[in-house]
Write a structure and sequence with these properties.
Strands 1-8-7-3-4-5-6-2 form an eight-stranded mixed beta sheet. The two termini are 27 Å apart. It has three domains: 2-21 and 148-232, Phosphohistidine domain (Glucose Oxidase, domain 1), CATH 3.50.30; 33-142, PtsI, HPr-binding domain (Enzyme I, Chain A, domain 2), CATH 1.10.274.10; 268-569, Phosphoenolpyruvate-binding domains (TIM Barrel). By secondary structure, it is α/β, with parallel strands linked by helices. It has helices spanning 36-64, 67-80, 83-96, 100-116, 121-142, 165-169, 189-197, 209-212, 234-255, 282-287, 311-324, 361-366, 368-381, 397-416, 434-438, 440-444, 454-462, 480-495, 513-519, 531-540, 543-555, 559-569; strands spanning 2-3, 5-8, 11-18, 156-160, 176-181, 201-203, 218-222, 227-230, 271-276, 293-297, 329-333, 386-391, 426-431, 449-452, 499-502, 523-526. It has 22 helices and 16 strands. Bound molecules: phosphoenolpyruvate (PEP) and magnesium ion (MG). Residues 295, 297, 336, 432, 453-456, 503-504 line the site of phosphoenolpyruvate.
């Protein structure tokens, strides 16, 4: 048995296919001064061919899986045309007198090294994209084929050392039962693609993978646990066949709840909405029966590009989601960059404690032009539906007061320009810092709603870095201190006649549903795929009993006692 990082859930049983390394090698040759122009011309021809292929792949992806996946190819195009990359290749040809294919290889290796040495996991994984582009470019310069060859009949589980986005998108979707890769993690593009294609996947298994498995081996893959069983016993196979069957049955059962409202047994209506990162997720929210969007993480629109998105680009993205959701509410959070989310082109300084640093609203307030561009786009999108704006990382009362002044000034600007927007647009703050919980009464006077961000609230309340695996056992949303803060926030909001939602991961934890309902939470915002399960859970609960469970939880001393109590009261099937 091998274990890796589970990146896309689901069980698969099938034959292994080891993906051969399709890297095309450069043809190492020394050249003379007279050859320089010819080699540089070959580069131009190779670039044009590569560009054409990427544009074609982009279109194929747009037609088959959607915009998010297609954008991987646009990102490749940007990397391909990066002047620093092209200049380096030309310099190598001219100064080192090496042929163009070797120059591409050397330049790509330099860029790969830079990306691989970066601290940020996301940036490290971009090294695979550069290898992919260089491989394609060298193949085109040398007139060779770099397409992945799949010579196996029927369906299979793909096993590979590394998997580039181009390889992932050219796989025969109907025949790939699962993907297992030695390198990579949750944010590698192959993982993103596997998730959106609904293919179970495990990544980051490590070196032993391709030594331990051979083409034709029988495999079981559990994409929820990261387990890989090689040539399993018949009993294991039948155990996992049952798991596949029950997964399918559960999914079919839950799908029937799509149009059912999330109402408790004693009639309390709960707003069940979803967290998204862009227009590409909107359809999924509706398919899973979401009643709206509780958190649109707008910073994802700012990633995977070289410059800030313009007002027009942002307006397009926000309105696309708003229109898709018809009149359902869409809460869009303003830029939450910093912490573990970087924007290289913003050129922010390195910090000792990035999560306590220049992050989210702190950046927006110190860069008014950037903030106002986003507010203009958000207000303009509000003309098309029910937009609410939410501000992240509010720790001080004066921050929201300042935000409101800027918002009012932006509304005045639009009015003067005769541009439509919703003048009564609702605004809210994320409650994710203990100071905001303690100031909830004052904050409630300023806004229309609260949304509790437990991902950050837990780390700031317990002083446990959410990214640090050495102390991850201390990071726990069932800590009574966290529960007591949540209660304080919900009670304050109700005293001031506003509502409180939750968009942190705790909202999707089925063991937490009853306690949160009992604490009086009005809205749950969860990942779209979790919507049916959370709804199913809410349908079983009653608010009276939930209140008693919550009261008892508040009186307990440790996270374990709280969790045990939650499970004893309502075991999650
Ligand atoms: C949170 O902190 O709970 C939250 C939803 O925001 P993010 O995870 O984007 O920081
Ligand atoms: Mg947060």
């Amino acid at each position: 048995m091998l274990k890796g990082i589970p990146v896309s859930s689901g069980v698969a049983i099938s034959e292994a296919l080891l993906l051969e390394n399709n890297t095309v090698s450069a043809e190492k040759k020394n050249i003379t001064q007279e050859d320089i122009a010819t080699e540089q011309h070959k580069l131009e021809v190779g670039m044009t061919k590569t560009e054409e292929q990427l544009v074609e792949l982009h279109q194929q992806l747009l037609d088959s899986v959607g915009e998010e996946q297609a954008s991987i190819m646009s990102a490749h195009l940007v990397l391909l045309k990066d002047p620093a990359f092209i200049d380096e290749i030309n310099n190598l040809i001219k100064n080192e007198l090496i042929d163009v294919s070797s120059a591409v290889q050397v330049a790509a290796n330099q860029f790969v090294q830079i990306f691989e040495s970066m601290d940020d996991e996301y940036m490290r994984e971009r090294a695979t994209d550069i290898k992919d582009i260089a491989n394609r470019l060298i193949a085109n310069i040398l007139g060779k084929n770099n397409q992945t060859s799949i010579d196996i009949e029927g369906s299979f589980i793909l096993v590979s050392d590394d998997l580039t986005p181009s390889e992932t998108v050219t796989l025969p979707r109907e025949r790939v039962k699962a993907i297992v890769v030695a390198k990579g993690g949750k944010t590698s593009h192959a993982a993103i693609l596997a998730r959106s294609l609904g293919i179970p996947a495990i990544m980051g298994v490590g070196e032993p993978l391709t030594n331990a498995i051979q083409t034709g081996d029988s495999l079981i893959i559990d994409g929820s646990t990261g387990e890989i069983f090689i040539n399993p016993h018949p009993e294991q196979i039948s155990k996992y066949q049952k798991k596949i069957q029950s997964e399918q049955e559960e999914k079919a059962q839950l799908a029937k709840l799509k149009d059912t409202k999330a109402v408790t047994r004693d009639g309390k209506e709960v707003e069940l909405v979803a967290n998204v990162k862009g227009p590409q997720d909107a359809e999924e929210v509706l398919e899973q029966g979401g009643e709206g969007i509780g958190l649109f993480r707008s910073e994802f629109l700012f990633m995977d590009r070289n410059a800030l998105p313009t007002e027009e680009e942002q307006y397009e993205a926000y309105s696309q989601v708003v229109k898709k959701l018809s009149n359902k509410p869409v809460i869009i959070r303003t830029l939450d960059i910093g912490g573990d989310k970087h924007l290289p082109y913003l050129d922010l300084p390195e910090e000792m404690n990035p999560f306590l640093g220049w992050r989210a609203i702190r950046i927006s307030l110190s860069r008014p032009e950037l903030f106002q561009t986003q507010l203009r786009a958000l207000l303009r999108a509000s003309a098309h539906g029910k937009v609410r704006i939410m501000f992240p990382m509010i720790s001080h009362l004066e921050q929201i007061q300042e935000v409101k002044k800027i918002l009012e000034a932006t509304k005045e600007q639009l009015k003067a320009e005769n541009i439509d927007f919703d003048p009564n647009i609702e605004i809210g703050v994320m409650i994710e810092i203990p100071s905001a919980c303690l100031l909830a009464d004052e904050l409630a006077e300023e806004v229309d709603f609260f949304s509790i961000g437990t991902n950050d609230l837990v780390q700031y309340t317990l002083a446990v870095d959410r990214m640090n695996e050495h102390i991850s056992d201390l990071y726990d949303h069932f800590h009574p201190a966290v529960l007591r803060l949540i209660k304080m926030v919900i009670d304050a909001s109700h005293r001031h006649n506003i509502w409180t939602g939750m968009c942190g991961e705790m909202a999707g934890d089925l063991h937490a549903t009853e306690i949160l309902l009992g604490l009086g939470l009005d809205e749950f915002s969860v990942s779209p795929t979790l919507l049916p399960r959370v709804k199913h859970q809410l349908l079983q609960l009653s608010t009276e009993k939930a209140k008693q469970v919550a009261d008892k939880a508040l009186s307990l001393g440790t996270p374990k006692e709280v969790l045990d109590h939650a499970i004893a009261s309502n075991p999650v099937s």
